Amino acid sequence: MENICAELTCYADKMESLAEKLGLDYFPINFEVVPNNFMNEIAVYGLPVRMPHWSFGIRYIHQLIRQGMGHSRIFEVMFPGDPCHAYLVRDNTIAENTLVVAHVIGHADFAKNNVLFSRFMRMAGGHILEQAAERAHNIKLALEQHGQQRVEAILDAALALEPHIDTNQALHRSGYEATIRRAGPSSFIPQDSFSRKFGRLPGECVPIDSAPEDTSRPHFPPQPEYDLLWFIAHHAPELEGWERDIFLAVREESFYFYPVFACQIMNEGWASYWHARLLREADFLPDELYLSAAKAHSDVVRPFAGDHQMALAVNPYHLGFSIWEALIEKHGIDAARNICREEDDFGFVRNYLTEDLAEKLGLFVFEADAGGGIRILANDIHAVRETILAPRFNYGAPRIAVSRMHMDGRLDLTHECQSDRRGLDLSRAERVLDYIARIWRRPVSLQTVGSDGNPRMISSHPIS
Q1: 269 and 238 together in one domain
Q2: Considering the domain boundaries, does residue 159 fall inside one?
């Protein structure tokens, strides 16, 4: 372990030996103790080294505010891989960091054995930190060669579309069998800047809005395309190679993080179950340290924050821990391991959050009125489950598909409102469309519905 005191190293080594004895199976873990400010940066950027962008700075300020108000405390950040990488906070006590070591071991066991994690790690690779550092270096080179304005425009669009991948597809997928003529009077795509500008001079090309459609050409894409990052990287009419590489880099990182998002309740609950069990069976811990670590455990898995006796949001640690504990008590650890291997949060919550457990945990669906009052809508188990899972659908993003790329390069997007079951923040959607149009360099439109349920079309045109 790097920068870690001898006492914690001793406890961590013994904790790993105990985990092996109890049957946990995981890739090696590299632990590192870091200052609190560095931990905040890792949590906000998502990685120790990542491509630079102004949005991360805003998130960092929000994190500091929440932390200052006592609403957020980061105990650890762990990156699955072979090896795994885990960061602990230097200012935490030995007891807290001993708990964190046990918690990370639980995460590592989950990540190695869960099918979803395994699939995505095979696609994205097991060396995320090294890969992210290489991407950050490439962005730095692009900034030096092309300037901040051009690079930032690409990053604005790519990061705005970060959750819009198709997790049913492979990371390294093949293209469509059908081909498409690019914008303009021929299938040739001008590669140099002069040719591109010349091609847009009046009288030298067919105007975008009046270019006739070739009715003999197959519909493109041949089916709705939900992987917006992939589609833009491969089919944007004028993107240069380095710009496409940025889109694909953001997409690859999004693939890596998807299992963490899709299994959060399971994963945090599994890690919490194992850190509690490891602490309970760690007879090598001094009594005082064990009691302090047990107090930290109760803080982690409590359903509410501070002195409040009601929580209006689900704590994934508390919910996941409670489900695993009830499940293991009833069916045993072998059955739990099979569930750990095969499920994600959707199957886990729908199949194993029982009505009795929901009642015991006091779970309900509520609505807040304009004056800040709370009205309970339902405590029906089906409504509770679906309310918990709704924000986890489709990476937490609206379900948007490329429905058509026209011969002149215009792009049609469709919001699948019925399957999505959520509305759009139209002002935000307009900003995202502006980002896309800026790098697509052709008009982009989005078909959705308004708050009244009626069809609504929003469009954006590239800035000349």
Answers
A1: no
A2: yes
Which letter, b or e, does each residue of 324-337 get, where b requires 16 or more Cβ atoms within 10 Å of its Cβ? bbbbbeeeeeeebb
Domain C-terminal end among 319, 336, 352: 352
Q: Are residues 418 and 332 part of one domain?
A: no
Q: Are residues 19 and 60 both part of a single domain?
A: yes
352: closest CA among 344, 406, 410, 174? 344
Tokens 């291997």, located at residue = 341
Rounded Cα distance, 367 and 372, in Å: 10
Per-residue pLDDT of 366-388, as tens digits, reads 655 556 555 556 678 998 999 89
* Claim to verify: residue 348 and residue 331 sit in the same structural domain: yes
Instruction: Express each pLDDT in 160-204 by its tens digit.
Output: 999 999 999 999 998 886 444 444 433 333 444 433 443 444 444
Please indicate, yes or no, if residue 381 is contained in any of the structural domains: no
Residue 284 domain boundaries? 6-114+263-352
- Say if residue 239 is in the same domain as residue 284: no
Distance CA 407, CA 410 (A): 7
**327 pLDDT higher than 50:** yes
Look at the chain and report how many structural domains it folds into: 2
Give me the torsion for CA of 260, 261, 267, 269, rounded to 10°: 150
> What is the tally of helices (H) and strands (E) in the chain?
19, 9
Among 87-91, 167-171, 215-219, 374-378, the least confident range: 374-378
Angstrom distances, CA of residue 243 to CA of 144, 175, 409: 14, 18, 18
Provide the sign of the torsion angle of the four alpha carbons 438, 441, 443, 445, taken in this order: negative
DSSP letter (8 states) at residue 191: -
For residue 366, the cross-strand partners are: 376
